Amino acid sequence: MLMTKFKAAAAALAFAAAPAAADVDLQFYFPVAVGGAAADTIEELTAQYIAENEGVNIEAIYAGSYQDTVAKALTAARGGNAPQLSVILSVDMFTLLDEDLLLPFDDFATSEDDKAWLNSFYPAFMENSKTDGKTYGIPFQRSTPVLYWNKEAFAAAGLDPNTPPTTWDETIEMGKKLTLRDDAGNVSQWGVRIPSSGFPYWLFQGLTTQNNAILANADGNEVNFDDPKVVEALQYLVDLSKEHEVMAPGIIEWGATPKAFFEGQTAMMWTSTGNLTNVRDNAPFDFGVAMLPGHERRGAPTGGGNFYLFKGASDEQAKAAFDFVKWISEPEQSAKWTIATGYVAPRPATWDTETMKSYAADFPAVLVARDQLEHAVAELSTYENQRVTRVFNDALAAAITGQKTAEAALKDAQAQADEILQAYR
Amino acid sequence: MLRTRGWIHAWLLLSPAFVFLIAFTHYPALTTLWNSFFTTPRGRRPRRWAGLDNYDTLIADPVFWKVLGNNLIYALGTIPLSIVIALAMALWVNRQFTGRSFVRMAYFTPTVLPMIAVANIWMFFYTPGFGLIDQIGSALGFGQTNILGSADSALYGVMAVTIWKEAGFFMIFYLAALQTIPVSLTEAARIEGAGSWTILRRVTLPLLMPTTLFVSINAVVNSFRMVDHIFILTGGGPDNASSLLLFYIYEVAFRFWDTAYAATLTVVVLIFLMGLAIGQFFLFDRKVHYR
Question: Where in the cell is the protein located (chain A) (predicted)?
C-alpha cells in the first residue's frame, strides 16, 4: 500500500521534472527486530529521500526478522533477483561473501568526501564491516548490551541505589545481598540475570571480552573457543548460578528477561540497549543503566544490522543505493532513527546534533551505550557464521545446564568449529 | 477405438491430480535425492559430485543421532498417550450429561488454535518465576522450576504441549466412530450379561480398530512433522536436548544454508517414514477390520 504511494509520489515528481533521464529503481530489504515504530520510520525516511531525489525509486520491503531477511535475500539472489540494497545482521557478512553477493562500498566512495564518510563511524562498529581491507557493511541498526539495575531493590538490600557493580566480583558481592529467599529457602528475587536462550554467545561475549579474550579473527576463519580465558569466563557464568547462587539455574529465557525485571524477579539484568525504551515505559520502579561490569578490562560486543550492497545491480542502481546509504547515515536522519528505536547512532557526528543533545539531556541513559563503544569489540562472526555460532551456543548451553564442564564443552566446540572452518583457511 | 477413447478419458480425468502430485511431491523428492549426492553450491564454489560423502557426514554427526533419539522418545511418548487420552475423552463425551457440548468444545479447542499461539500460551505456563506453573507451585510452597531451561526436562516440556494439542484432534475421530457403532450391539451384549468393561473390550474397541489405525498413522506422521512449537518454546535447546529431526533439517537448510546436507537428512526421514507407513498398512491392515 505504502509502496504504491511512494511510487506514485516519485512518479509524479519524475513527470514534473520530465524529460528526466530514465528512472533508477531500487529494491531495499529491511528487517525489524524491535517492533512497529522501526518499520514506519524506515518507510518515512525512504519516502523523504525519494521526494528529495528525482529519478530514483526505492521500494522499501519489510522482510521480517533478521533471520527471515537474510533467507529472503539469499533466496532472491539464487533466483537471480537479488535486491540492490538490504539491511542484514553485521555478522552475516562472511556468509554473504561466501555466496559472492556483495559489492564493496569502497568501489563507490571515490571522492575525498566519500572516503572521509567511510571513516566517520565508530571503529567498534566497523570491525564487523571490514575484511581484506574492504568495507562491505555500513552500520545502521546497531546495539550493544548494557546492565540495567533496579534502584529500589538496591536500596532495600542496603546498597547505594546509584552505584551498580563495576567488576565481576562486585556482581557476586552485590548479587548475594540482592538475592532474597523466603523461609522455605525458595528464591523470590535473584541478584542478576544474564539470559542464555537462543543466542547465549552474544552476552557471553561480554564476559570473554572483559576477560581479554577475542573469539574470532578478522578473516573469519579462526576461532578461539578453547582459550583458557574463554573457559574462565564460562566458568564464571556457570558459577553465578552454581557456586554463588545469585542467578537462576538452567537456561534463562531472553524474551522473558525484561518482564522478569519489571516483576522484581531479578534486581539486575543484562540485555540489549534496544530494550531501553521498553524498560523506560514499563518499569514500575526507578532504574539505572550502566556499562557491563569489567574484569581484566571493560568490554562488550556490538550487535545488529548493517547496510549491504548486492551484486547484480547496474552501475546506476549501485550508485543510487550508495547515495541513499550515505544520506540515511547523515546526522539528522540518523538521529531520527536512533530516537525512534533506541539503536545506537553509529557516527559521532550524530551525537553532536541538537536533536540528539536535547534527547540525551532528557534521558541520559542513552549515552551509556555510546560511551561503552570505546570498550566494545566486533560481534563473533565467521564464515558459516550461523553454524559456528550454533556450535558455540550448544557448548555454552551444555555447560550452563551442567551436561559438560566448561573446559570440555569449549574443547568440543573448538574441534567442531575447526572442522567447519577448515575449508576457508 | 472405444477403448482408446476410454483411456484418454481416464488420463484426462487423472491428469490434474497427477500434475500436482508429481510437481509437488514426486519431483521434489527425486531432486532431494539427487542433491544429496552433491556438495552445497556457494557463490564462490559451484557444487560438485560428492557421492556418499554427505551420508558419511550424517553417520558421523552426533547432532543427527541426538535428534533421531529425541524424535523416538518424542514419538513413543506422545503417540500412545495422546491416543489413550483421546479415546477416554471420546468415551466420556459420547454419553449423555448436562454440559456435554461445552465439554466437547473444551476438548476440541486446542486443535483449533494455531500451534504458534499454543506454544506462546505454554511458554507462559512454563516461565520460571512468574509463569502459571511456578505461581501455583509457589502458593503450595514449591521452589522455582525451569522445565524448558534444563536439558533433562526440555523435551518432556515440549511433548506435553504436543499431547495437549493432539488429543483433542484424535478425539473427534473416535467420537465420530463411536456414533457409528449401532446401539443394538451394546444392548445385545448387555442382555447376554456383559459388564461395561467387557463391552468396551470386546465390542467397542474392536469396532474402533480402523479408526485407531487411521489415528495412529496420523500420530506417527505428526510426530515427525509438528515442530512449530519448538521454534517458540526452546529453539531446540539446551544443547539440542529438545530438537527433532524436522527442526534440525530446517536449521541446516535455512540457517546454515547447507542445502546438500539438509537434502541428505530429508532422504533419511523420507525412507524412515515410508518404512513406517508401509509397515503399518501391511501389518495392521489385515487385523483391524472386525469380521
Answer: Periplasm
With respect to residue B3, please indicate whether it lies within any of the assigned structural domains: no
Q: Cβ of B166 under 8 Å from any chain A Cβ?
A: no
Q: Chain A within 8 Å of B11 (Cβ-Cβ)? A: no
Beta bridge mates, A26: A58
pLDDT of res. A20: 46
Fold of A2-142+303-377: D-Maltodextrin-Binding Protein; domain 2 (3.40.190)
Contacts of B89 (CB under 8 A, 6+ apart): B107, B167, B168, B171, B174
Distance from CA of B138 to the nearest CA of A (A): 8
- How much is the average pLDDT of B245-274? 91
Hey, which residues 264-283 in chain A have their CB within 8 Å of chain B? 265
Please tell me the total count of domains within chain B: 1
B48 touches chain A (CB under 8 A): no
Residues of A in contact with B44 (CB under 8 A): 97-100
pLDDT of residue A341: 80
User: How large a percentage of chain B has pLDDT more than 90?
Assistant: 47
Cβ–Cβ of B127/A394 closer than 8 Å?
A: no
Q: Is A189 on the interface with B (CB under 8 A)?
A: no
- Options 3.30.1490.480, 2.30.40.10, 3.40.190.10, 3.30.70.20; CATH for A145-301+382-424 is 3.40.190.10
Tens digit of pLDDT for each residue in A196-207? 988 899 999 999
Chain A residue closest to B255 (CA)? A386
Give the residue extent of every domain in chain A: 2-142+303-377, 145-301+382-424
The ranges of chain A with pLDDT < 50 are 1-20
Mean pLDDT of B219-228: 88
pLDDT for res A36: 53
Q: Which helix (H) or strand (E) holds A188?
A: strand A187-193
Check pLDDT > 60 for residue B291: no
Domain A2-142+303-377 identical in fold to domain A145-301+382-424? yes
Which cell numbers in the block locate residue A93? 557478512
Distance from CA of B255 to the nearest CA of A (A): 6
Q: Do residue A401 and residue B151 have CB atoms under 8 angstroms apart?
A: yes
pLDDT in tens, B31-47: 999 999 998 888 778 88
Tens digits of residue pLDDT in B86-103: 999 999 998 888 888 899
What is the mean predicted confidence (pLDDT) over B197-203?
A: 88
Could you give the angle at the alpha carbon of B6 between the alpha carbons of B3 and B11, nearest 5°? Answer: 130
Query: Cα Rg for chain B, rounded, in angstroms?
Result: 24
By Cβ distance, the residue of B141, B151, B234 closest to A184 is: B141
Residue A197: its chain B contacts at CB < 8 A?
A: 149, 234-235, 237
- CB-count exposure of residue A340 (10 Å: 0-12, 13-18, 19+): middle
* Burial group, residue A218, by CB count within 10 angstroms (0-12, 13-18, 19+): middle
Q: CB A394 to CB B239 under 8 A? A: yes
Q: What is the ipTM of this complex?
A: 0.84
Residue B28 within a domain: no
52-111 in B: which are within 8 Å (CB) of A?
A: none
C-alpha to C-alpha distance for B209 and B174, rounded to whole angstroms? 10
The domain of B274 spans 48-288
Measure the CA–CA gap between A245 and A236, rounded to whole angstroms: 12
Q: Is A400 within 8 Å of chain B by CB?
A: yes
pLDDT at residue B202 tops 80: yes
